[in-house]
Amino acid sequence: MKKMQQGFTLIELMIVVAIIGILAAVALPAYQTYTKKAKFSEVILATAPYKLAFEVAAQEGRITALAGVDSGGSGIPAAAGASGVVASVAVDEGVITATGSNAVDSLTYTLTPNGVTAPIQWTIGGTCIAAGVC
After folding, report:
1. Is 80 helix (H, G, I), strand (E, B) or coil?
2. pTM listed for this prediction
3. How does pLDDT run across 57-93, given as a tens digit for each residue?
4. Which of 7, 37, 66, 110 makes an SS bond possible with 126, Cβ 3.0 to 4.6 Å?
5. What is the per-residue pLDDT across 11-24, written as a single tens digit (0 to 9) for each?
6. Burial of 63 (0-12, 13-18, 19+ CB in 10 A)
7. Domain limits of the chain?
8. What is the third-level CATH fold of 10-131?
C-alpha cells in the first residue's frame, strides 16, 4: 500500500516564509513614508490661515510690497507656537514657514508668494521636498 503524503515539506514552508519576508521588506518602507506624509499634512494645513490672511490683505491693499510683511501685522496672524506635530508657523517678508516637530524630523514647509498682486502664485519649498512628504 502506498502512503499518502499529508502536510507540507520543509522546502515548501521555507519558500512561503521567504516570499512573506520579501513582501514585508517592500511594504514596510512604503508604509513608513505614508505615515510620515500623513503626520506632515498637519504642518501643511497649519499654513492655511496665514496664506488666506496674506491674500485678503493684498486684495484689500493693506500690503503693497513683500518687504515688511511679517507675522502679527497687516492682518496676518501672529506667529504660532507648538501644537501637535507643528513646532511653529511664522511669516517673514511674505514667506510663510512652518516647522514640524521631532515627530516629523523637524522638516520645514515654506510658501513663497510671487508678489502682492492678484493672482498670487505660491511656490512650495522647504526640507520636506527632499524627504518626499510635501
Report:
1. strand
2. 0.78
3. 999 989 988 888 888 888 889 988 878 899 999 999 9
4. 110
5. 999 999 999 999 99
6. buried
7. 10-131
8. Glycoprotein, Type 4 Pilin (3.30.700)
